[in-house]
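Dear colleague,

Thank you for sharing your sequence with our group. We've completed the structure prediction you requested, and as agreed, I am returning the results in plain text so they can be pasted directly into your records. Please verify that the sequence below matches your submission; if there's any discrepancy, let me know and we will rerun it promptly.
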Amino acid sequence: MHSGPDVFPLAVTSLNSTEVKLWCAIHIAEKNPDLLICEFELEDDHIYPLFSPAEEETPPLPEDTLNSSPNEQDLLESTLSASRPLRVLRNARKRRGQAAAMEVFSLMSQIQGNLSSLFHSITYEGEHANNVRNTEQLSSASTLDVFLKVLVGIVKELTGFHRVMIYRFDEVWNGQVVTELVDPRATKDLYKGLHFPASDIPKQARDLYLLNKVRLLYDRDQVTARLVCKSKEYLDDPLDMTHSYLRAMSPIHIKYLRNMAVRASTSISLIAFGELWGLISCHSYGQKGMRVSFPIRKMCRLIGETASRSIERLSYASRLQARKLINTVPTEQNPSGYIVASSDDLLKIFDADFGLLSIREETKVLGQLEYSRESLAMLEYLRERKFTSVLTSQNLSVDFPDLNYDPGFSIIAGLLLVPLSAGGQDFIVFFRKGQLWKVNWAGNPYEKNVKKGTKEYLEPRKSFKIWSETVVGKSRDWTEEQGEQ
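Please find the predicted structure tokens below.
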């Protein structure tokens, strides 16, 4: 199950010699290794086609649920693709039947051939030899921001959705849209920069995203099909559909999408550093659903796994880049010789207010030391704890509950710690002051819409119009480029 259900084409011939071509997704039920679960879809479905003419794909008028007026820069940021076209996909979409299948599996085999570098594996085929190019866009991306912009472009072209966005979780599981690519003909809503409360994707849903890494809702208004059993005995042991492509979604989630005017959706999990880092979330609008074929879903899973590794790679690379400013060879005569860049340069690079360098119980101040009592209390705590990995915090009182400092921290709010020795006794720490900063939410995150009946339960909020609040006592977020885990 590491790469999801296996997908392959299948032809079934009826008694009257009519051949029906299908895609089959097959996997073994984890709780019952003797059970094979097979799912089928028509290869060429005329009722629910994979690709429709452009005028049918886009709603006559773009959806506008936010009622916002983005400026020209924001519009360009969310509608201009940073990725190059995948011509092999265009060839596949022009063909029917087995020829299209061969194109799709050709692309899949390239991805499977080298998962560590997505664009080493996706090459342009069907062209003359002098036109064949390796697009190493993702593998050569130098920053997380560039990487994610390319990623949404690839997924949008691969799936055909009107919107593809990267939804990233913070330390308390609130989400933020950090980048997106939108078809402005389908929607005026721009989500980039907006925050979503953790209750939008509760823990049980996040746990499921860790297991089932690609989820699709074809059409929010389509009636859910019933499962038919061969006999009553099969009801005694319910079918485990955790990894099934065709499983239904929660009615609450479907209401949530309806309130956003979203017709169809797909999500691809991004799992980094052993936990759910975020989601690639895809939306379509209009009066028709958006079907993603079994082989494309398989490919989306592979892309998600590759993207997850790349997120880790870029994070580690950013830490190494930061360490280039620090000479890790100690000298007896000059312990502060660790520092290659000047104090001012380091503070500027890490966007810090001031900092401390602690080596062999000696301390050097970076910048102008302010609020020395708070700084020294934090210094002693870090010396005692001896952290051995890069550490960030936006809120000291929340992230370090065992930190005993009776006066409390009223000025220093956040820190970035970079250890300089294997045992954690030597380190450099950057501090940021607390400040007022505005958070833009997609709707009021504190709104409670309680549905009463035989049972009371929360319903998703009906409005996603921008709702702003001012946060006090936290520092700015430490970005990936500044060494965030």
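Summary note from our side: Residues 167 and 177 are 5 Å apart (CA to CA).

Kind regards,
the structure core
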